[in-house]
Amino acid sequence: MWRKPTIEVCHTCELYDRIYGTHPQTGEAVDYWGCALNRLAVIGLETAKASAATGDAVQAHRNDQARERQAQSRLLMSRQIGGDSGPPRLVDYRPPEG
């Protein structure tokens, strides 16, 4: 099959499929038939871009959780230092280095 002209065999191959949607870089509408092997590089780049965006979202969520834990830790320390009398007050607690 690979020695025949592509015009004769591509439409019979299982890797010959339709792509439709929007182009990720230009935003224009795309609708064509072609070989899936030719698009592996583009699919790999799109996967890497999506993975990087997911990593950024996870990092932002981790930072939010760390800030929340630090605020809760300061609140607990203020209750321990000031006793349980009166309203809680925030103290600037930094854990020891090392």
Can you give a write-up of this model?
It is a single chain. The protein has 98 residues and is of the alpha+beta class. Helix content is 48%, strand content 14%. The protein has one domain (6-82). The chain has helices at 6-9, 40-82; strands at 16-22, 29-35. A two-stranded antiparallel ribbon has the order 1-2. Strand 1 (16-22) and strand 2 (29-35) form a beta hairpin. The longest helix has 43 residues, at 40-82. The chain is rod-shaped, with a radius of gyration of 28 Å. The model has no long low-confidence stretch (mean pLDDT 80).
Topology:
Elements: H1 6-9, E1 16-22, E2 29-35, H2 40-82
Antiparallel strand pairs: 1-2
Number of strands: 2
Q: State Rg.
A: 28 Å
Strand content: 5-15%
- Helical proportion? 40-55%
The figure for the number of domains is 1
Counting H and I runs of at least 4 residues, what is the number of helices? Answer: 2
* Shape, per Cα inertia axes: rod-shaped
Give the biggest sheet: 2 strands, antiparallel
Mean pLDDT: 80
List SSEs in N-to-C order.
HEEH
Unreliable stretches, pLDDT < 50, 5 or more residues?
Answer: none
How far is the first residue's CA from the last residue's CA? 66 Å
Record the strand order, biggest sheet: 1-2
Structural class: alpha+beta
Which properties best describe this structure?
single chain, 98 residues, alpha+beta, 2 helices, 2 strands
Write a brief structural summary.
The chain has two helices and two strands; from the N terminus they run H-E-E-H. The chain has 98 residues and is an alpha+beta fold. The protein has a two-stranded antiparallel ribbon with strand order 1-2.
